[in-house]
């Protein structure tokens, strides 16, 4: 069973007899790239706007395992995230 490919030539049901090799010109490739970049930018902006609205409710859920682990140590009374350099969160 063959998997149908997606793309500008696969949108038409009868594209097999119009363009059997599914060859695209350079302008068709650029149009496809522009369309995909616009979708990527739009979805990133929508996700950023949505997360900017609800970040205060999401942060305690993300930090819950860290807060729960600190309860056993009793080292931190008021936990706070603090980074002193941009790479510090990624280094051990």
Number of separate strands:
0
Helix percent reads: 55-70%
Mean pLDDT over the full residue set:
77
Give the overall silhouette.
elongated
Structural class: mainly alpha
- Give the end-to-end Cα distance, rounded to a whole number of Å: 48 Å
Percent of sequence in beta strands = under 5%
The string of secondary-structure elements, in order, is HH
User: Radius of gyration from the CA trace?
Assistant: 24 Å
**Number of continuous helical runs:** 2
Residue runs with pLDDT of under 50 for 5 or more positions: none
> How is the main sheet built?
none
Q: Top keywords for this entry?
A:
92 residues; 2 helices
Could you please describe the fold and organization of this structure?
- The chain is mostly helical and 92 residues long.
- The protein has a domain at 15-71.
- The protein has helices spanning 15-18, 26-73.
- The longest helix has 48 residues, at 26-73.
- It starts with 14 loop residues before the first helix and ends in a 19-residue tail after the last helix.
- The relative contact order is 0.06.
Summarize the structure.
This protein has 92 residues and is mainly alpha-helical. The chain is 57% helix and 0% strand.
SSE order and pairing:
Blueprint lengths: L14 H4 L7 H48 L19
């Amino acid at each position: 069973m063959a998997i149908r490919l997606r793309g500008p030539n696969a949108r038409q049901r009868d594209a097999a007899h119009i363009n059997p090799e599914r060859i695209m010109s350079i302008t068709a490739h650029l149009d496809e790239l522009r369309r995909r970049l616009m979708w990527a930018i739009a979805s990133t902006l929508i996700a950023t706007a949505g997360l900017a609205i609800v970040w205060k409710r999401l942060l305690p859920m993300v930090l819950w395992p860290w807060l729960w682990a600190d309860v056993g140590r009793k080292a931190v009374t008021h936990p706070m995230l603090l980074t002193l350099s941009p790479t510090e969160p990624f280094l051990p």
